[in-house]
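Researcher: Last one for today. Full complex below.
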Amino acid sequence: MSYLFDHPDKVMPFFWEHVRLTFTSLLIALCIALPLGFVIAKYRKLQAPVTSVLGIIYTIPSMALYAALIPYTGLGKTTAMIGLVAYAQMILVRNVVAAIQGIDPMMIEAAKGMGMSKRQIVFRIEVPLAVPVVLAGIRVATVSIISIGTVAAWIGAGGLGRLIYQGLNHDHTGKIVAGTVTIALLAIGADLLFRIVEKIFSPRTA
Amino acid sequence: MGIVFKNVVKQYSNTAAPAVDNISLEINSGEFIVFLGPSGCGKTTLLKMVNRLYDTTSGTIEVDGVDIRKVQTEQLRRGIGYVIQQNGLFPHMTIESNIAVVPRLLKWPEEKIDKRTDELLEMVHLDPRTYRKRRPNQLSGGQQQRVGIARAMAADPNVLLMDEPFGAIDAITRSSLQDELHRLQRLLKKTILFVTHDVDEALRLADRIIVMQAGKVVQFATPYDIVTNPANDFIRKLVGERDVYRKMGFLKVEDIYSADSLDEVAATADGVTLTDDLKLVFNRMVEEQHKAFAVVDSNNKRIGTVTMDRILTKLAQ
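Model: Here's the assembly. Have a good evening.
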């Protein structure tokens, strides 16, 4: 523990690097998962093939996936992010689909019957009703990205994983503990943050 | 005017028999019409064809003289009030936003929407200050359905479609909602099409009932005629044996009074009005020991007479 308190200046850069890696990956993952999830929620024929492909990717161990990617994209942040985005897809897409399909069909019928256009139904009814469920998915995905991101230090992605690897290589327990504790705090903090956001966006329980 | 169905057919691709089989009906403006029948008889399909949630396979439907296929769908729907079963309110919107849905689609100015919202909430006996900012889940089922009715009337449509609106509401609340709806309809003279499988509800609310069976209309008549002259055994069973006392509940003074001023009317008794039902009049006759009452108009001016004999004659028909 003492390393963490004695050298915050050495831990913090790793921390911020990890935060950046996590949120950049999350942002890219969302840009893919939100439209993809929405489309397959509407066109159910696509649902089974898409979710099984994502499921297969999700089951590949992260080390193995990174090893397989290195010949093509090399070492570094890009490869790390490709892996993180791929893993997050499964969680995010599944939640978007569940969110859209979990909307009571009566809601859609009421909206239609009152004269909303297709576009208005999407933006005034479906999206707001899906938000709480999607947020829960984002929370789980974020925590996953933080943890797999630690492993990504192995291929040169930086972040708190690097601190742990340094500790392992130099037999420096202080660095290992500092890295582990900080990563745990980051994960718990992110989880908490998204729970608060979820609360704000979920009117059913307000 | 009103709503006219001409040879309307709805054929779903996955069933052999049509869901709605060549129905022609004329509904007058301001009438309270109940579609009654067992599930699968086509009543909901018929209702939902009016606002084009389902399209007709053939035939035409006219609302206030306009063929519904000649109007843009969204525009048509914004002009027709629509109330569905429980859960019809949008849970992510406050009560006021729920009520404002159609006025906003119609791009009313916010000031007008604001005023209208208060007006509507008061109309359904919910205090605007208390309820405007609440969410649907903070209201009881009965209150939610009051908001549902207010929402459907928001843009003051001539026609209201109601699809088993009180189906999931407990008996006592349902009965007060029925009274409320009946009162509003008398007041606002909306044309209401109301789907139910509840016979008592139909008899209680309707000016005329459309009884449906296997996609066809088997009887289109007043509640009184349905009870006293069921068109077939199916309807006889549906409405069951209704006693004489109950029959009187479906009849009004206006159905039987005579315009003469007979002398036998006790001068001391208060008069009855045209819209009093015969059950009430009969009760008073028994309690007050009079065989006849004066019929008076809203200014308490005598316009005729109702006698015990006339009631008995009508019931014997």
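Chain B has 15 helices and twelve strands. Chain B has a mean pLDDT of 88.
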